[in-house]
């Protein structure tokens, strides 16, 4: 069956960190998806509105939330980045189709869940983790969330509250270039993740973020960390 295109209305477009936007839309009647999936937006070129291309965004809201939420990390001069920063306002309509993708929680594994994200790559992990915890998931869940510095950070309070409420969920924020006053983890997720996981043979691992990071980690995961292919799930934001 062909995937239909939906017209949705923006309800919020707010900058929440340096070059990061929290964007919300109305959810079309009957629209369902699995936590972790993405949709494709039609994005016109500002200078030539008839020049249309699609761009992917992971759904950052939960399937049972009444709106669709997204986190967008701007790329300088990018088509979608300019649309979000310069054009899209609450009340405007947009077109998207979906949902797409198999980057969803593996319900068949007995292993502990281990998530590694940089910046907007944390978007699909929020619904995956919150949904699992809401459903009473008791196994250990770790989220390693890396950004460059304090000004790039978002969702830290919401995720910290979640970790406080659920003893089996641990949040590990790492900054690669923090200010001197930063008291948390320092360094890239590439070094932070193995220090936290210790033994990856017990983990079912999810990696999401920029393609540079996901490609590097995919290789390291299989060749150095000893993660089996069946336990590795990777979404690169190409
Ligand atoms: C499955 C999936 C899910 C994703 N989910 C998210 C998400 O939740 N959040 C998120 O922020 N991103 C996500 N992405 C990435 C997103 O889809 C876009 O690729 C990203 O936002 C950049 O899009 P853009 O239109 O702004 O930039 P583009 O127009 O695609 O350009 C990318 C960069 O290349 C430069 N560029 C473009 N054309 C040229 C050229 N001719 N010469 C030199 N440089 C050029 C631009 O200036 C820009 O810096 C996802 C990607 C995938 C595949």
List the helices and strands and how they pair.
Layout lengths: L4 E13 L2 E7 L11 E8 L2 E11 L8 E7 L5 H9 L5 E8 L11 E7 L6 H10 L6 E7 L8 H10 L3 E7 L9 E2 L2 H9 L5 E7 L1 H13 L8 E5 L2
Parallel strand pairs: 7-8, 7-11, 8-9, 9-10, 11-12
Antiparallel strand pairs: 1-2, 1-6, 2-5, 3-4, 3-6
The chain binds flavin-adenine dinucleotide.
How would you describe what is shown here?
This protein is of the alpha/beta class and 238 residues long. It folds into two domains: 5-100, Translation factors (Elongation Factor Tu (Ef-tu), domain 3), CATH 2.40.30.10; 112-236, 3-Layer(aba) Sandwich (Rossmann fold). It has five helices and twelve strands. The strands form two sheets. It has a six-stranded antiparallel sheet, covered by helices on one side. The longest helix is centred in the C-terminal third of the chain and has 13 residues, at 211-223. The mean pLDDT is 97. Flavin-adenine dinucleotide is lined by residues 38, 55-58, 70-73, 75-81, 120, 123, 235, 237-238.
